[in-house]
Amino acid sequence: MIGATIFSTVGCNPDDPLPDPEPVKNPPTIEILTTGFHDTIVTTDTSSLFTLHVKVDTGSAAIKTLTLYREGTKLELDNFRIKGEEPSANPILIADANEKNGFTWDVAIRSQNTYDTQTYKLEVADENGKTDDASIVIIVNEPVTSDLTFNDSGFKLYNNGTSNKGGISLLDGTPQSASTSSSDEPHIYDRGPVNGWDHKISPATPTMSPNYTTILKSVAAGVDYDATSFKADIEEIFNNGTEIPQGAKSDEITEGTVFVAKVNDTYVLFRFDTINNGATHLEDYYTLSIKY
Asked: Which residues contact 80 (CB under 8 A, 6 or more apart)?
């Protein structure tokens, strides 16, 4: 019996042309132009519109859409404007033939209505499904809600070496007794003495104010009381201040001296506006302005 074995091989002809490589699909690009416009970190008020200058360039395919997000969620239509007009959809379909090849738009975004920091993203997509994005951070600081100024009915801190009330509440400006036998609860108190009043203060002790914890600090150089408008600014001033421990005295106070304190969880900035050196120690007092 004669058997035959057949070997079959399949190979490539080295002369066969190679297949064409997949064409490179370059994505579109988007950037927020900051020169002469808003930076990519903006501090503003709640629910305020501000305008971004946005530049989009095409990649390998025509531009298809622009989508706006806030903290990962598509932005509501009434919270942004495109070229001054309220959009009809989000994402925005790019229909203009020229704009499909790129555009520069004014995009107005309405900030959040909460006191916090949020990220807004603008994402461009092309007909190939390629995308690019640019982001902006919006900071909305809570404004000072209490701005108390001296009036004749209060906001006086008396010489504590007298029979007057030598302490004061930093939350409402009312004079408070610094005596541990009193039901008053001051946050700071004057250090006297009756003779030779030396214009110094200390934070109240727990025995003076069992329901309040007051941390008192002198402020760093350059703090401007009148220019401080936000709660976050007062907290920052506090963080940069130098603590005056309980029992210790501040440096001598002059008119215009500013201090910062934390009363429980409230940050307070206050200024000594006037110092009245009375005819007797009973008439020695300061007047203050307070904000928090």
From this structure: 68, 87, 90, 107, 108, 109, 110
> Do 90 and 75 form a contact (C-beta atoms < 8 A)?
yes
Q: Which among 140, 163, 194 is the end of a domain? A: 140
Question: Lowest-confidence range among 16-25, 119-128, 229-238?
Answer: 16-25
Q: Is residue 4 part of a domain?
A: no
d(Cα 104, Cα 82) in Å, to the nearest integer? 11
* φ, ψ at 231 (rounded to 5°): -60, -40
Flag whether the pTM goes above 0.90.
Answer: no
User: How many structural domains is the chain composed of?
Assistant: 2
pLDDT of residue 14: 62
Instruction: Give the pLDDT confidence of 207-218 residue by residue, as tens digits.
Output: 999 999 999 999
The whole domain housing 171 covers 147-291
In a domain, 24, yes or no: no
| Residue 39: closest CA among 147, 135, 126 | 135
Three-state DSSP state, 130 = coil
Looking at the fold, whether 120 and 166 belong to one and the same domain comes out as no
pLDDT at residue number 153: 53
User: Do 127 and 181 belong to one domain?
Assistant: no
Q: Do residues 120 and 174 share a domain?
A: no
205 and 194 Cβ atoms separated by less than 8 Å: no
Last residue within a domain, chosen from 121, 140, 159: 140
- Which of 54, 68, 49 has the alpha carbon at shortest distance from 111? 49
Q: Evaluate whether 184 touches 177 at the Cβ level (below 8 Å).
A: yes
Q: Which of 8-12, 22-26, 177-181, 203-207 has the lowest mean pLDDT?
A: 8-12
Please indicate, yes or no, if residue 222 is contained in any of the structural domains. Answer: yes
